[in-house]
Design brief:
This protein is of the alpha/beta class and 330 residues long. Helix content is 33%, strand content 23%. It is globular.
């Protein structure tokens, strides 16, 4: 990708730093600026990446001719920030919102100002899941069993979980996991037609929400699955089984753990992926950089070439309604 673009990364925490690092790798000619109200984060970003950082979005708007903004703050702050960015006629990439506050307003504002509005859904870009998705044939019925869980205090061991947005009921840890997983599940297995939820709180964590969900899912095309979501498991787990007649996949969440059934030999064989997967120190082994990189490439294609996003605010509004209903009926 050639040319120049002025990019503003709003929020210089762990995700903001990841986005900066990968943007510099993908489009080194683009100029990156940072915004954070915490001085230590601004200083850290400047020292690590050599970018100029400012204290507020308004200061950035007055100082630099911004083309595109990345919203990497906590989810409940997104709606107002996105609106302000779109009002400046900036294209917007946002991390998971987890709530649909301001969605209709911001969708209209983006259209009125001819801006691109792009929502992160990183697991749609995981190569392992894309491989499985390519095998799913709607002429056959498929089942899946999927467990995703990790003890909440271990998510960000460098900070107290009560100081992190997953400690808030509206943006809780189980809700975030659902928002991460449901888009690729729906993309792969089809629109959800029915579900049944069993849930409760089984830990002594100081949270005011259910910490584990067992969700039976039926899809319109006849596929069905069991999704287990929790912030309880002391071992970080991401374990998927997908099967149909004479076909079976197993994935344990890491790039080297995808296996498929070989009908000729009657054995499981390891799937060799095309990409060398990268992992950033300090994160769970399930978090690989390649999916984030692929997602950013997709975003820049949307901005520069006018490509339609794989997943957008309209689809996410439906996903969040579904999660609201699952939480309500648990």
């Amino acid at each position: 990708m050639n040319g120049e673009m002025n990019i503003l990364v709003i929020g210089l925490g762990s995700m903001g730093k990841r986005r900066i690092r990968l943007i510099k790798e993908i489009v080194p000619d683009f100029k990156i600026y940072g915004v954070d109200n915490k001085e230590e984060r601004r200083n850290e970003a400047h020292e690590l990446y050599g970018i100029n950082c400012m204290e507020s979005l308004s200061q950035a708007a007055e100082t630099v001719n911004i083309d595109t903004a990345f919203v990497c703050t906590s989810p409940l702050s997104h709606s107002k920030i996105i609106s302000e960015c779109l009002s400046h006629k900036w294209n917007v990439f946002t991390e998971l919102n987890l709530v649909s506050d301001g969605y209709e307003h911001n969708i209209k504002l983006a259209k009125d100002n001819n801006c691109k509005l792009f929502l992160s859904s990183t697991f749609l870009y995981r190569e392992e899941l894309a491989y499985i998705r390519n095998w799913i044939d709607n002429n056959f019925k498929w089942n899946y069993i999927y467990h995703v869980g990790q003890y909440l205090p271990d998510w960000h061991p460098w900070e107290n979980y009560k100081d992190f947005f997953v400690g808030d009921r509206r943006t809780n840890g189980c809700r975030e996991l659902m928002a991460i997983e449901l888009p690729w599940i729906i993309k792969t297995f089809g629109k959800i037609s029915d579900y049944h939820v069993i849930s409760d709180k089984m830990t002594t964590l100081d949270i005011n929400y259910r910490d584990n969900y067992f969700i039976q899912i039926s899809h319109e095309n006849g596929n069905k699955g069991m999704l287990v979501i929790d912030v309880v498991s002391p071992v970080a787990v991401r374990r998927l089984e997908v099967y149909g007649e004479r076909k079976y996949f197993r994935w344990n969440g890491t790039p080297d753990s995808l296996y498929e059934y070989d009908a000729e030999s009657g054995q499981l064989r390891k799937v060799a992926l095309k990409e060398d997967q990268e992992h950033e120190a300090g994160y769970s082994e399930f978090i690989v950089e390649n999916a984030y990189r692929n997602e950013l490439k997709e975003f820049f294609n949307v901005v520069i070439s006018g490509k339609e996003p794989v997943y957008g605010f309209e689809q996410d509004m439906e996903t969040l309604k579904l999660i609201d209903s699952m939480e309500k009926h648990a």
